[in-house]
Every structure is written in structure tokens, then in C-alpha cells.
Amino acid sequence: MASMKINVTVAAVAVIFLSAAFHPCDASTNVKYTPTAPPPPPRAYPSPSPTPAVRPVIIVEGIIYCKSCKLKGYNRNMDASPLPNATASLVCYGNKKSNYRELNVTSTPADKNGYFIVMMYEVAMFHVDRCMLYLRSSPTSLCAAPFVPAHAKLSLPLEKEPRKAPLPKGALGAYHSKSALMYAPGNAGKCPPY
């Protein structure tokens, strides 16, 4: 019984001690509130710069074929198949005003459908009567003999496309050759393995 009285007494003293130590009215634990400084104003960012001007461009596009090769995408009416990765060149010949300067622009490699595009940014040099399309390169020696035009130094004239869909922003016009560009198998007579 005596040990129980001691335990109760010790517990009572502990409760009194703890309540005194953590009592909110105790001066040692009373913390005064000091307001913090207001947050800084949001940072002023410079106004966005104006959208850069779109450069004017002339678009020349078309399809390059491999004649008499019945490959993927074969066109029976032309007896030809699209030639992926072939390229064309757009050459614009200057006049007296431009000191007879010549401008040569290579197309993108043709995609799987033989489609290529030339983006000409020197629009002052472009004139439909002085610009011509040439075959530039074939991705395979199995179909590298020029067929249309019949020689690498011959070209095809351009004509403006009658488009119903709007042109991309900045495009001043879209043109294509008056005939398809076409390679043919060389002396071996084989078609590329596409």
C-alpha cells in the first residue's frame, strides 16, 4: 500500500510539474507574434516580343517515278512506281537585272510516295518562265537513267497549281512541273528492290 501511495504521489507531482512547464500562461513559453513582411510583388516580366515575320517562300513540288518498275504504289497509267529518296533541282536563271545570276535549290528527298518539295526563299529570283526542274539524284543505280526529261541536262517547265486549299503562311505560290519527273532502269533493266 505504501508503494502505491508513493506512485500516486509521484504521478501527482509529475502532472503538476508538467502542467506548470507547458502552461500557456507561463511567461517563459509565451511567444509574442510579430507579423512577417509582406511577400514581394510579382516579378515584372518583359512583354513578349512580337511574333517574327514569316519569310515569303515559293513552293515547288512534285513526284519522282521509276519507269516500268512495278513496285509499291505502281501507277498502271504511267507504267511507273514512286521512287523514294530521289531528289530534284530547281534552277532559276537570272536576267540582265540580276546580272544573269543563277540560283540552284535542291529538293527534299522524296518520301515513300515519291513526293518532293522545294522551298525557295529568294522570291525575287523566281519567275515561272526562267525557273526549271531537273532530275538531281536517284537513290539506286538500278533506276538512275533519266527518262523524263530524257537527259540530266534537260529540264521541265513549271506551271502554277490551281489550289482550292489555302497555302501555308508566307507562301506566295505553289508550282509543279508540267510533266512528272521519271527515272528508268539502266542497261541492266532491273528495278530497285523497294
UniProtKB/TrEMBL annotation:
Tell me which GO cellular component terms the UniProt record holds.
cell periphery
Keyword Iron in the entry? The reply is no
Q: Which segment of the chain is annotated as a signal peptide?
A: 1-27
Is the Signal keyword given for this protein?
yes
- Pfam hit, one: Pollen_Ole_e_1
Q: Which UniProt keywords apply?
A: Signal
Q: What is this protein called?
A: Pistil-specific extensin-like protein
